[in-house]
Design a protein that fits this description.
This protein is of the alpha/beta class. It contains 16 helices and 18 strands. The chain binds adenosine monophosphate and zinc ion.
């Protein structure tokens, strides 16, 4: 059986079938680049990343597009406050978003920027004007008349009967329960960024961006549209209204929404002091791989409660996976295969697939992998593993990591980069001793560590303990932990 996904539009879990054979066209609402992204944003981006990775692993040819909202009310307000242009203001946070995504090992989508599509947005609005779905106010703003679009409310399942025709709103986000005609185009205000276009001067509303950019990429109808659950209304409801009003065709087949993340049981907010960016967590000494793992543990439709205890246990799960891989790759095994191990690997692959096919049940896929780890470790302890078993087990592990993306041990250089960034930004005070310690180990690359370890072993075998102790101390100072196991000496980074 193939992938089954919950579709917000139908309110049901459905079999996923793309409109065009094997091709999947998928669009996700990206960040509004007015600040550093927080863990809630990345909860959603990682959920979509997993979907993207799993679709590809399932054999689909996926084109994944994400927008960067680089003009909106907040951006205009903040850039004016800082006395810089919208472009200067957003360039910094767009860059930060790309860096944070790379830090979390998120695969990069095709990125499209709102400010690069303004003429197309004006043309789109002009078409809606022709079709009679809009009205223009005296100042030169354009609004979408929702009473004109009978399907309004079909995504958010709100009943807008009895709504006041002509009540309108010109902010991008508005009260969850009020249906309002929304701004497609906002007339210029003094001191605000504005563009001269075919429909007059001004700037686009937020919702029109995504309709225009997704349809430009994919045409009037496409397969998947994703975002956090807060986008269902009004953003996605409005996208559907604009797009279907224009094309007369169904806009998106399948709507994917990630549930909002909580922090220590509460809604994240700056005033509660529970608001964290990715950088905040790294400054406290947490590894990017632990953050990524934590954000994948709970299936996307369940509420994820972010806690620091959870982050610690995420670190230990990643550690277990990496240690297991190390154990398989650093030991010599006798030739051949044993039926139980090959079967274990195959079963694990099948279990992971059926878990992910089941509306991306990440928790179950991870449980299947840890089950394999436990059984394989027992077999390893008993000396029952052979060379070809190792290949099978590593095969399952690699397949798992194609989705979860935590096995590559590149936390240290990433953490070092964030430490350097904090210094450059004058935020030294936030750098924890833990981060300083971990980041210092990035000064030794894997090759260098391996070489020093080999020297250390040679010195020890030659009974030159002074020299081997000195090398060990040098490694320890660089944050490398050397362990003597019964499979031999190995190392890991702190
Ligand atoms: P924004 O930058 O505010 O436009 O948001 C970018 C993405 O993050 C959108 O898909 C939001 O739905 C999502 N998002 C924002 N806050 C949270 C949260 N607490 N939990 C999950 N997703 C969120
Ligand atoms: Zn959007």
């Amino acid at each position: 059986m193939g992938l089954r996904l919950y579709n917000t539009l139908s309110g049901k879990v459905e079999e996923f079938h793309p409109l065009d054979g094997n091709r999947v066209r998928m669009y996700a609402c990206g960040p509004t680049v007015y600040d550093y992204g927080h863990i809630g944003n990345f909860r959603t981006f990682i959920a979509v990343d997993l979907l993207y990775r799993f679709l590809r692993q399932s054999g689909y040819d996926v084109r994944y597009v994400m927008n960067i909202t680089d003009v909106d009310d907040k951006i205009i307000r903040n850039s004016a406050r800082d006395g810089v242009t919208v472009q200067q203001y957003t360039a910094k946070f767009t860059q930060a978003f790309l860096e944070d995504s790379a830090t979390l090992n998120i695969e990069q989508p095709v990125l499209v920027r709102a400010t690069e599509h303004i003429p197309a947005m004006a043309d789109f609005i002009a078409e809606l004007v022709k079709k009679g779905f809009t009205y223009r106010t005296d100042d030169g703003s354009y609004y979408f008349r929702i009473a004109q679009f009978p399907g309004y409310g079909k995504l958010s399942k709100k009943d807008f009967a009895g709504m006041t025709d002509g009540a309108r709103v010109d902010v991008d986000e508005y009260e969850k329960d009020s249906a309002r005609d929304f701004a497609l185009w906002k007339a210029p205000k003094p001191g605000e960024a504005s563009w001269d276009t075919s429909i007059g001067p001004g700037r686009p509303g937020w919702h029109i961006e995504c309709s225009v950019m997704s349809m430009e990429q994919f045409g009037p109808s496409f397969d998947l549209h994703a975002g956090g659950e807060d986008l269902i209304f009004p953003h996605h409801e409005n996208e559907i209204a604009q797009s279907e009003a224009l094309s007369g065709k169904p806009f998106v087949r399948h709507w994917f929404h990630a549930r909002f993340l909580l922090v220590e049981g509460q809604k994240m907010s700056k005033s509660l002091g529970n608001f964290f960016t990715i950088r905040d967590l790294v400054l406290r000494g947490h590894k990017p791989s632990s953050i990524r793992w934590l954000l994948t543990q709970v299936p996307y439709r369940n509420q994820l409660n972010f806690t620091f205890d959870g982050l610690k246990s995420a670190a230990s799960s990643v550690e277990k996976l990496r240690n297991f891989r190390f154990r398989l790759t650093s030991t010599q095994f006798p030739a051949g295969a044993t039926p139980p191990m090959a079967q274990l690997a195959d079963e694990t692959i099948a279990q992971m697939k059926s878990a992910l096919d089941d509306d991306l049940n990440t928790a179950e896929a991870q449980a299947a992998m840890f089950d394999m780890l436990r059984k394989a470790n027992t077999a390893l302890d008993a000396g029952q593993v052979r060379q070809d078993d190792v290949k099978s087990l590593l095969g399952a592990l690699d397949k798992f990591d194609e989705i979860f993306g935590v096995l590559k041990d590149d936390d240290q250089p990433k953490m070092k980069a964030i430490l350097d960034w904090a210094r450059a930004e004058g935020r030294e005070k936030e750098i924890s001793p833990e981060l300083t310690e971990i980041a210092s180990s990035a000064q030794l690359g894997d090759e260098q560590v391996n070489r020093k370890l080999a020297e250390m072993e040679a010195a020890r075998k030659a009974r030159n303990f002074k020299s081997s102790d000195a090398l060990r101390a040098e490694l320890t100072a660089a944050g490398i932990i050397v362990e003597n196991t019964k499979d031999g000496v190995r190392w890991r980074r702190k």
